[in-house]
Design a protein that fits this description.
441 residues; Rossmann fold; 6-stranded parallel β-sheet; 13% strand; elongated
Amino acid sequence: MKIAVVGTGYVGLVTGACLSDVGIEVTCVDIDQKKIDNLKEGILPIYEPGLDDIVKRNFEKGRLKFSTSLAESIQGAEAAFIAVGTPPGEDGSADLKYVLAVAKEIGDNMNHHMVVVTKSTVPVGTAEKVRNELTQALASRSADIDFDVASNPEFLKEGAAIDDFMKPDRIVVGVSSDKAKEIMDRLYRPFVLNGHPVIFMDIPSAEMTKYAANSMLATKISFMNDIANLCEVMGADVNLVRKGIGTDTRIGNKFIYPGIGYGGSCFPKDVQALIRTADQNGYEMQILKAVEAVNYAQKEVLFSKLMKHFNGDLSGKHFAMWGLSFKPNTDDMREAPSIVLIERILAAGGTVTAYDPVAMEEAKHILGDKINYATTEYGALENADALLLVTEWAEFRVPDFDKVKDALNNPVIFDGRNVYTPEAMADRGFDYYCIGINTLA
């Protein structure tokens, strides 16, 4: 079986690599020649644990190819996956220009039946726009070629994407013909040997499923952050509250950890896009608007605690920051809470030295020389007036606290992810601030 995957970003590269790992012949296509050349040399544009090994192994075996020519790559392919970016427009709606441009190019070059699959996260109705682009492109060259359109949203967690793809809990596919269903079923059969299903549905429902899933998870996060803030006011311990509600199987214990807001490439963009889609169709997503508002506010919480501790004056204060990426096991800094916190500190007259295990280079692209960068977590502590823990990387869980205390000008830790406990920090002589517990009441 041969397929093409257009786009070598996070979704496209993981999709192409994992499909090739079960024996499918995959060509990943991108317009960026340098990116394609790097991929052929084993240099990946993203950090994802385990992905480099899969790419290298399948490239060497000839099952995974990289090309800048979409026209050549779709020849003989049974399916072409569109996995290009859908960045938010000025109003928050998904920008489909890249998706539709790829659809047109496929229509300009296809010469046999194919299933054109939208893998990018796209609003309901996008598949019909893709179908129209294909139809118009074929008509412009008087080509009478049958094709199908399908929707196959991804449910990959950054940092665990390989396991998510290779051992999925479900695969959602929207189709409108038996022929498309047969091809997609054959494509994904190797991935459902664990007994979890390929769920076939109509295309609009598949498109909606992706947005509904991410919006539900974002809602759980914002709800728990709202509860955490109230816990601080009322003298309750959000960690105990979380345990108390998480044992209820109707709620579950996932995505109910309080923190300093969600970020990344999916939740912020998808929540915004679903809100805008509803607005455009005369319906107001009241809950999601609150979810978005809570998340924006939550990214300010650690800064507010910082200002309170230093009596509203950060002038001349220097801070160590552990973690820059929006979550562990990725270098993704899109919508990362660290960016908001850094901007607020700098605007208030403070300075920052940061350390992150993998996101330093990405941070330099975004922040440049606005902050300093350390080569180790302990190096970031030099001359710092406090430590800010922003991303819950595993290596930050059990540091040498004596070393931390000796390096800091003041024994103060602001923990934005509740990695430590108030009791342990008090025993070690730290002033300690976290989320959802009034530690210094």
